Amino acid sequence: MGQSQGKHIQGEQPQMGQSQGKHYQGDQPEEGQGGQSQEEQSQAGPYPGCQPHAGQSYASQSTYGGWNGLEENFCDHKLSVNIDDPSHADIYNPRAGTITRLNSQTFPILNIVQMSATRVHLYQNAIISPLWNINAHSVMYMIQGHIWIQVVNDHGRNVFNGLLSPGQLLIIPQNYVVLKKAQRDGSKYIEFKTNENSMVSHIAGKNSILGALPVDVLANAFGISRTEARSLKFTREEELGVFAPKFSQSIFDSFPKGEEESPSKCMN
């Protein structure tokens, strides 16, 4: 009787641990981290803040069962970058200074705000190559030092010629030519531009637009001799963006205190 009853019990009633485990696995999905099921985690994707379209999971977006790269565009944006870091400089002249640019190529989140930024550090008496903004207006804010600026509109009229000090702001419209020269204490400033991929065109230097024009064309366009046109075409061709002063520091120190040099006197 004891053996038959034992067999009868084992035949009709399975072990409690095994039956409960099988019943749990069959009726309820497994829970992953944070109380989510594996199916919910696969739909949530690798980034918690990024959700696919309704009825679609990251696994279904790729033939290989993974995500397809969209999460890099929407969820992997850097929200901050140190534009003051000298190692990020796009242009460096050991005798003149540095220029660092941020646009949508180097800082993709700027696509959202549709703006870009340029940070400039000029050494003593250094000059920014004459240029104009091709596709944006710019707002220039002085951080440190002093800088002399000349701005000419698209009709050739001088609309600004003065000194900027720390804390001052200057708006430079699109297509207005601007020339900047740091004073004896150097200068630091930042420009915000109304285009995520702002571009400038330089008039002098290695990447000058005049360097691509024949000498005869320059001579006829400006009404100057071929010798003057050649000098205009090849001036400062060894430097890019930011120019070092050509005069010795002793010459600059000979000017009386309070009298600053305008940039146009130092371009030749």
Given as residue ranges, the uncertain stretches (5+ residues, pLDDT < 50) are 1-11, 16-29, 42-49, 52-65, 248-259
Helix-strand category: alpha+beta
Return the average pLDDT rounded to an integer: 74
Largest sheet: 10 strands, antiparallel
Total count of helical runs of at least 4 residues: 9
CATH architecture of the largest domain: Sandwich
Beta-strand content: 25-35%
Rg on CA atoms, Å: 33 Å
Large-scale geometry: globular
> Can you tell me the CATH superfamily of the largest domain?
Jelly Rolls
Give a count of the beta strands, DSSP E runs of length 2 or more.
10
CATH topology of the largest domain: Jelly Rolls
Assign the CATH class of the largest domain: Mainly Beta
The helix/strand series, from N terminus to C terminus, equals HHHHHEEHEEEEEEEHHEH
Helix content: 10-25%
User: How far apart, in Å, are the first and last alpha carbons?
Assistant: 119 Å
Give the total of domains. Answer: 2
Give the tags:
single chain; 268 residues; alpha+beta; Jelly Rolls; ten-stranded antiparallel β-sheet; 10 strands; 26% strand; globular; disordered N terminus
Describe the protein's architecture and organization.
The chain has helices at 2-12, 16-27, 38-44, 58-61, 70-74, 110-113, 215-222, 226-234, 249-253; strands spanning 91-93, 97-102, 116-122, 127-133, 138-152, 158-164, 169-172, 177-193, 200-202, 242-243. By secondary structure, the chain is α+β, with helices and mostly antiparallel strands. It has 2 domains: 35-76, no CATH class; 86-205 and 240-266, Jelly Rolls (Sandwich). Strands 1, 2, 3, 4, 5, 6, 7, 8, 9 and 10 form a 10-stranded antiparallel beta sheet that branches. A hairpin with a 3-residue loop joins strand 1 (91-93) and strand 2 (97-102). The chain is globular and about 55 Å long. Residues 1-11, 16-29, 42-49, 52-65 and 248-259 have low confidence and may be disordered. Hexamer; each subunit is composed of an acidic and a basic chain derived from a single precursor and linked by a disulfide bond. InterPro entries: 11S_seedstore_pln, Cupin_1, RmlC-like_jellyroll, RmlC_Cupin_sf, Seed_Storage-Functional. This is Cupin type-1 domain-containing protein. One of its GO terms (biological process) is seed development.
